[in-house]
Amino acid sequence: MLNVPSQAFPAPGSQQRAASGGRSKVPLKQGRSLMDWIRLTKSGKDLTGLKGRLIEVTEEELIKHNKKDDCWVCIRGLVYNVSPYMEYHPGGEDELMRAAGSDGTDLFDQVHRWVNYESMLKECLVGRMAVKPVAIAKENHEKKFLNGILLKSKVPDLPAKEISPSYDWFQTESLVTIVIYTKQKDMDSESVIVDYQDGCFRAEILIKDYSYLLHTELSHEIQEDISVRVAEKTGKVEIVLKKKVNISWKYLGHPLENHNSFTEHKEKGLYYRKCKLISKVDVTHDTKLYCLMLPPGTHLQVPIGQHVYLKQTVTGTEVVKPYTPVLESLHSDLQEPLHPHNKYIYLMIKIYRAGLFSPHFDCLQIGDCVSLSSPEGNFKKSQLQDLEELFLLAAGTGFTPMIKILNYALNITSLRKVKLMFFNKTEGDILWRNQLEQLADKERRFEVEFILSEPTCEWTGKQGRISLPLLSEFVKRSSEDSGVLICICGPAPFTEQGIRLLKDLNFSQEEVHSFTA
Ligand code: FAD
Ligand code: NAP
Q: What is the pLDDT of residue 226?
């Protein structure tokens, strides 16, 4: 619902905008970009009409404010006057009006739960929803400390097959081992995210659409190198902490927010940790490869096809944008990677000169920090199993999710063919062209084709935009019953058109995976 310009991205007049045909769903008026909004919020103008006063809002009051010029929306218990924001909303006024005078939390979570609305709308805050009197549950004081007993977690209404995990812990003289029993057969270490920062320990276990969280302030200090072991067959996760001082712990720690809870993943806010910029290397004239180092107490692996969010404060407002981690290079398997995979994250980012986030990010110096979220996304490695042919359709930085997919897929011996069709404006825009050509020379199952929309007269390859003739020639099944997957990623209208064309070519929904936020 409330979002930053990425939904209308590329915006009108942007360097990304196609010569013909509107690309953003709702074109914003001149002077209505996110930067303009940030400027307005800093101008000192009274945006709520309450002169900075915060009030308690009853349901009856909220409902009354349901018109464009008087529109209040509640998100997670806080009420905002969004009327001044209407014209700045990239999704358009109508989309925002769907939540007018009501609780828009679900609508917000469905579209952009990652957007930091608290920061974006802080000058529009009207107040809190008034709390209805409810019977307060008697607090269980016995649970104040975590003492190693199997606590019963806060469990939502789960589908019958989902069982809440439980945990236990034990210690030796120098180690504390936390054991989480997930009872899941297909657990892997990508499903375990651990953070230890400022004495707080946080372990999140992802189980399908759910997430189990341990969150405690540890009773004693530990060293920062934490190890994680996952028994895939039984779903047992062991997290081994090294004590700083070899004394016996009486209890594990004090529970923190949502400790020992098992909830739908989308209900949880994004968790960020600060990562250090280690290097930046040019890829093309406007795109760079950035290496970020995770903090020492973090265990996090970004699964293939998933993205993370970066968060920075731009002119006093927190801005969040998604980026898709890539490999250090397409030859990563050939040589020892410079950095171990589980401590470093590589991002290939295009810098838009007039963009809000990317130029700001590019100003970071080596050694500076940026906040990075846990991974998100709905691509599953299992989609690559039992395939015979894989087709990748990428435009511009839409190439980023294809990098890990390509690398993983070429290690599947049953896969007979992997083809990448890569759309760019000019030759100079092609990301990792040399590496792709070298890979195609070396690996007979891999083919790459570059299509340019603005070629010079020297270009002898294909040109144009995504079209039926191009696709029908490129995306061909070798036999009627061969297992096929087509991955597509690029500017939203490119992806949407590609999906329509693939449907016309009789590929089923299951055979097409598109990447979005
Ligand atoms: P924006 O501020 O969004 O601006 C982009 C362009 O639009 C600029 O040229 C700007 O001048 C113009 N513009 C903005 N607002 C207006 C306006 N109102 N009127 C006129 N012009 C305007 N990108 C990567 O580079 N690498 C990745 O790996 C990557 N992964 C992604 C993964 C996902 C799931 C998604 C959804 C996107 C991904 N992106 C990636 C894109 C990325 O999230 C950002 O959208 C991109 O970096 C641009 O953000 P920005 O704030 O720098 O630019
Ligand atoms: P770009 O350089 O502007 O465009 C790349 C190619 O796509 C060009 O050939 C361009 O043709 C073509 N194209 C653009 N719009 C088109 C349309 N409507 N129909 C057909 N072809 C079109 O691209 P970019 O600046 O790198 O942007 C990449 C986009 O990918 C961004 O929008 C980013 O958000 C998105 N992305 C998404 C994900 C994800 O969802 N996981 C990951 C990474 C990137 P023209 O020259 O004719 O415009």
A: 94
Q: What is the dihedral of CA 89, 91, 95, 101, to 10 degrees?
A: -30
- In this structure, which residue's CA is closest to atom 4 in ligand 1? 355
Distance 461 CA to ligand 2 centre (A): 19
Distance from chain centroid for Cα 491 = 17
The pLDDT value recorded for residue 433 is: 98
| Interval between CA 462 and ligand 1 midpoint (Å) | 27
Confidence of residue 233 (pLDDT cuts 50, 70, 90): confident
Ligand 1: nearest atom to the Cα of 322: 43
**Angle, CA of 312, 283 and 463, to the nearest 5°:** 115
Closest residue to atom 9 of ligand 2, CA basis: 424
Helix (H) or strand (E) holding 514, with range, is: strand 512-514
Q: Which pTM was predicted?
A: 0.83
CA of 399 to the centre of ligand 2 (A): 10
Mutational test site, ligand 2, from 321, 349, 358, 425, max ligand atoms within 8 Å of CB: 425
Can you give the pLDDT at residue 358? 96
How many angstroms from the chain centroid is the CA of residue 214? Answer: 21
Q: How confident is the model at residue 139 (pLDDT cuts 50, 70, 90)?
A: very low
Residue 217, pLDDT > 70, answer yes
Nearest atom of ligand 2 to the alpha carbon of 9: 32
Atom of ligand 1 nearest to the CA of 5: 3
Residue 198's region, left for phi above 0, alpha for psi from -120 to 50, else beta, is left
| 160-190 CB burial, b ≥16 within 10 A, e <16 | eebebbbbebebeeeebebbbbbebeebeeb
| 233 class by beta-carbon count within 10 Å (0-12 exposed, 13-18 middle, 19+ buried) | exposed
Q: If you measure from the C-alpha of residue 380 to the centroid of ligand 2, how many angstroms do you get, rounded to a whole number? A: 23
* Tens of pLDDT, residues 376-419: 999 999 999 889 999 999 999 999 999 999 999 999 998 999 99
